[in-house]
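Re: weekly structure request thread

Next one in the queue (422 aa):
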Amino acid sequence: MNITLPKMKECEFVVSAPPSKSYTHRALIIAAMAAGVSEIKNPLDSGDTRVTLRALRALGTEIREGPGLLRIRGCSGHFSGEKMMTLDMENSGTSFRLLTAAALLCRQPVIFTGCPRMQERPVGHLVEALNSIGGRIRYLGMTNYPPILIEGTIRGGVVSIPGTVSSQFISALMISAPYAESDLEVLVTGDIASRSYLDITADCMETFGVRPGREGYQRFMIRSGTGYEARNYTIEGDYSSASYFFAIAAVSGGSVEVTGLNPGSVQGDRMFLDALGRMGCRVTCQADSIRVERTGDLKGVTMDMSSSPDTVQTLCMVAAMASTPSHITGIAHLKYKESDRLKATVDLLNGLGGNATLAEDGIIITPVPLHGGVIDPGDDHRTAMSAAVLALTRGDITIRNAECVDKSFPHFFDIIRGIAPV
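Done, posted below.
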């Protein structure tokens, strides 16, 4: 599906944020581990979360679906897969990483594989950490990359893991740790990519009855034998997905209100609003909604976005429309996403006549007049959605294979068509 969006001027609309993808993944997996039946309300229905649901069912979890609701009967930390199986995680890095640790709670070996891009995304740090505490995980292809054969157990003890590639490696250890044979202490070395997602993990764990001990982001302690308890849990709105609408207000002028957001959320992508504020937008927070208004010319910004990775590309699109240069830092780990998002962003902007360059610690964008063109997002949902923000400023940009947004926001372009009809 190819989409050409019209030029938008002075927008004024209200839209509801879709449910958080990060919270949905974690709530589904934790509820599947818990004792009892949980009700997960307002879960995100997307390509990635469907991968997690299929995998949990294959591992023996009973899941019943209703309108805006999932009822999950937990396994009390012991998945009941009856035979060795192969699970295709497609290109869902969150599913693959969080469930790699969880699969050690299954009585039978499990093979995890994925699409060609998934097989280029490293998992070596996680595999090494799990193997040091009882796992017997083997690579079935190239060392450090999927596919992998998962078997063994989680003994507990002390495990050290680098935080530079993905915080999901740490989250995987944390989520499964209550069912280890003994207490688990996770020591994180080096800088931590996307550390705010560890706050989401800890928040979700605590909601289901397990509070991790922690010393900042360097040390996490989880007691064995605590176990999760079933809960009725409502998924909060997603700041990552909301960022595209806030960005539309910034680049097109006018104002946008996004409802269904928790102003006190621990989601790191809230920082996108700080960036827009520094660039010259007015940000107003209410009880369950946030409004962004363009109040004048946009100024460039220098900002560390290491804890807000999913809004980096969106911020780069806004930066391209500013009056002065921007330097987005702390984002080296984006090369390991669904695509190499650093290269993809630079190529996208420069392909439209822009001036974007890779720096040692991020991207530098010097605003210049852009022209129209065709954008191939490389099957990366966030590249496609951030490109839509830019497309609305021109009216002559076509986005190819736009259906890739199903991964996190299936109805994104339906909403865009509603607010910017052709």
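Residues 239-252 form the longest helix (14 residues). The mean pLDDT is 94.
Next request, please.
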